[in-house]
Design a protein that fits this description.
Elements (H helix, E strand, L loop, with lengths): L7 H5 L2 H10 L2 E4 L4 E4 L2 H9 L3 E2 L21 H8 L7 H14 L2 H6 L1 H14 L5 E3 H6 L1 H11 L9 H9 L8 H27 L5 H7 L9 H31 L2 H9 L4 H11 L5 E6 L3 E3 L2 E3 L4 E5 H4 L34 H18 L4 E2 L18 E3 L2
Parallel strand pairs: 2-8
Antiparallel strand pairs: 1-2, 3-5, 4-10, 5-8, 6-7, 9-10
Helix pairs in contact: 4-11, 4-13, 7-9, 7-17, 9-13, 10-11, 10-13, 11-12, 11-13, 13-15, 13-17, 15-17
């Protein structure tokens, strides 16, 4: 078997390939995706923190100087939106925008969301209480983060059905080789979502409410404030990163528990394990398998020279199973501590929404454990044919 992100069988279980790569080729070039794959925890962690590598290179060089073609003009609406979010910023722009966003998106703000998250989860679980069998995707996993983020942003109830399709279409562009159809859908979603958020942001700038868009529209620090593009890019990033990751972590997490009944029994007997359990589920079967970095200056890794302009594939899923860092890494251990997994990244691009993701996952797992203590799978789920944003197509369960 080989690194084959287009193969659903590989997506379902890439870990044997990762084990081989860590042992024999910890840095290797994959011609099919034009990526240098980096698979060991120590290397991935170090490269995430090293500013010789960037989410973009445009702060340091032009496309031509990096030996790269400029993106097609037809993709301009997508890149305008994505480049305005802190995930794809570097240098002074990243520092400025992250500082401004962090003033609104504080730990205290996230903790203040706890009663709302608990209410949303209780409502979702209560709605299926007598259903017998359900698919966790449309009933719990998907509506929870969408509803939370919609409430955070102040999106009216009548418009919330728009968010999930926009997010899904934009996120398809993060795959290694998106199709022309995926590119067209992402451009359309970028235009529609941007237009919607611009109108909402302008309205809140004049008539602020108690929501994050209002906060972001008003936040000022040392004379700096977010541009409209940056505000829109931040909101889209919050939805895409927070929603897609939480949906996939929920389904993969439950499927992992069902396949490890001893650990599921342990969690059912002790809900106090939930904080460490969520971290271990994120480590054990990682929703975001690979993250990319551009090489801004030539360097060498394990004796392999890598040129400027190359693109690294930092394989989170492999790093999270590295036996040099995790004892018995292929064993699920819900009480594992310490647990330095890289599922939220590292360095300046560490996930701003990590506290919210943890809150949502712990709350939803607790609610389902308490309300449906005998929940079990009805059938083996199918994996979606996507590798970067990795998840199940659904998860049917019997509530018991």
């Amino acid at each position: 078997m080989r690194f084959a992100p287009q193969d659903v069988a590989f997506v379902a279980d890439p870990y044997p390939v990762y084990q081989e790569l860590r042992a024999s080729a910890p840095v290797t070039y994959d011609a099919a995706t034009d990526h240098w794959l980096v698979t060991r925890h120590r290397d991935v962690d170090a490269l995430l923190r090293d500013r010789r590598f960037g989410r973009t290179y445009l702060h340091a060089a032009s496309h031509e100087e990096m030996g790269r073609d400029a993106p097609s003009a037809r993709l301009a609406p997508f890149w305008r939106l994505i480049n305005a979010g802190i995930l794809d910023m570097e240098g002074s722009d990243h520092r400025r925008v992250r500082r401004l966003v962090s003033k609104a998106f504080t730990p205290a703000y996230v903790e203040g969301l706890r009663p709302r998250v608990e209410r949303i989860v209780a409502d979702l679980a209560g709605a299926v209480n007598d259903a017998g069998e359900i698919d966790l995707l449309p009933t719990i996993a998907e509506p929870l983060p969408v509803t939370v983020i919609a409430e955070m942003l102040g999106v009216p109830d009548a418009d919330r059905h728009l968010l999930r399709p926009w997010s899904a279409d934009i996120c398809r562009m993060y795959e290694l080789n998106p199709s022309a159809e995926a590119e067209a859908a992402a451009v359309r979603a970028s235009l529609e979502f941007s237009e919607y958020l611009r109108a909402l942001a302008r309205e809140r700038a004049h008539h602020p409410g108690e929501d994050l868009i209002s906060e972001l529209a008003q936040v000022v620090d040392e004379g700096d404030r977010l541009t409209e593009d940056e505000l829109v890019g931040t909101c889209v990033l919050l939805l895409n990163a927070g929603h897609e990751a939480t949906v996939n972590a929920t389904l993969i997490g439950w499927w992992t528990l069902f396949r490890n009944p001893d650990q599921l029994r342990r969690l059912r007997a002790d809900h106090g394990l939930l904080p460490t359990a969520v971290e271990e589920l994120l480590r054990f079967d990682t929703p975001l398998q690979l993250f990319e970095r551009w090489v801004l200056e030539p360097f060498e890794l394990h004796g392999t020279p890598i040129p400027r302009g190359a693109e690294l594939g930092l394989v989170f899923g492999s790093a999270n199973r590295d036996p040099e860092v995790f004892e018995e890494p292929d064993r699920l251990e819900l009480g594992r501590t310490p647990n330095p997994h890289l599922s939220f990244g590292a360095g300046i691009h560490f996930c701003l929404g990590a506290p919210l993701g943890r809150l949502e996952l712990q709350t939803s797992f607790r609610a389902l454990l308490e309300r449906f203590p005998r929940m079990e799978p009805v059938e083996e789920p199918r994996w979606k044919p996507s590798y970067i944003v990795r998840g199940l197509a659904g998860l049917r369960v019997r509530l018991g």
